[in-house]
Amino acid sequence: MTFDRSPKIAPSILSADFANFGAEIRAVEDQGADWVHVDVMDGHFVPNITFGAVAAAAFRPHIRTVMDVHLMVARPDDWIADFARAGADVITVHPESGPHIHRTLQSIRKAGAKAGLALNPGTGLDGVQWLLDDIDLICVMSVNPGFGGQSFIPAALPRIAALRAMIGDRPIHIEVDGGVVPDNAGAIIAAGADVLVAGSAVFKGGSTAAPEVYGRNIAALRAAARSGA
Ligand code: DX5
Ligand code: ZN
């Protein structure tokens, strides 16, 4: 994975057909996705259950780009080695989900993946400055995690800008996750983000039988993103 700050579109397969992940992943990549975002939910840290490391390992051969694993689970330390073995390029964790976020981030890198820190809409930015040497990505949650299809929380924008200023020249991605649509993508990029996660906005109206709809949805996000770059 090389680092750059150009806008990237990361479809969340939370909005894909759960009976058809391989074909869905190939379809969004063929249609221009830059990364593939894998939302792991355990029914404890968030009120929803999706899939685990065995599923992630099964997705991996279908992903040519970047497997971006977003862990929304209690006790993330118990799962990092499994997701790294499954081939995750990035593993992102929430500070509220375990007792020692610094140790958790270190163990992600030690396992060979890039380390991401996810910040819920109500999480303060105070401690982030002490973690800047230990992270490769900050995921600014623009919804409360657990479900796709929620509305973007506008307070995410000044949070992105504050983090962008805090990061300075460090090679750290700012990813934004939740309610990203063409209408807000320009403002999100202008605020300083570079990775746009989008579930509903990519998958809506399309299917593996009509993948060109995914292509149009991704192109609309990318055009809007570029307008903010
Ligand atoms: C929310 C997930 C998001 C979600 C985004 O808990 O982390 O990745 O899938 O979905 P949309 O784009 O539909 O808000
Ligand atoms: Zn996510």
UniProtKB/TrEMBL annotation:
Which source organism does the UniProt entry give?
Answer: Ketogulonicigenium vulgare (strain WSH-001)
Instruction: Write down a Pfam family by its short name.
Output: Ribul_P_3_epim
Name what cofactor the protein needs. a divalent metal cation; Zn(2+); Co(2+); Mn(2+)
User: What does the Swiss-Prot or TrEMBL cofactor note state?
Assistant: Binds 1 divalent metal cation per subunit.
Q: Among its keywords, does the record have Zinc?
A: yes
**What does the entry list as the binding residues for a divalent metal cation?**
37, 39, 70, 177
Annotated substrate binding sites:
12, 70, 146-149, 177-179, 199-200
Task: Write one Gene Ontology MF term.
Answer: D-ribulose-phosphate 3-epimerase activity
Function, as annotated, reads: Catalyzes the reversible epimerization of D-ribulose 5-phosphate to D-xylulose 5-phosphate.
> Which CDD domains does this chain map to?
RPE
HAMAP family attached here? Answer: RPE
Q: Per UniProt, what is the name of the gene that codes for the protein in this document?
A: cbbE
**Any single Gene Ontology cellular-component annotation:** cytoplasm
- Going by the record, the broad EC class of this enzyme is isomerase
Q: Which family does it belong to?
A: Belongs to the ribulose-phosphate 3-epimerase family.
Entry's NCBIfam families? Answer: PRK05581.1-4, rpe
What's the name of the protein? Ribulose-phosphate 3-epimerase
Per the UniProt record, which EC number(s) apply here?
Answer: 5.1.3.1
Residues of the active site are 39 (proton acceptor), 177 (proton donor)
Give GO terms for biological process.
pentose catabolic process; pentose-phosphate shunt
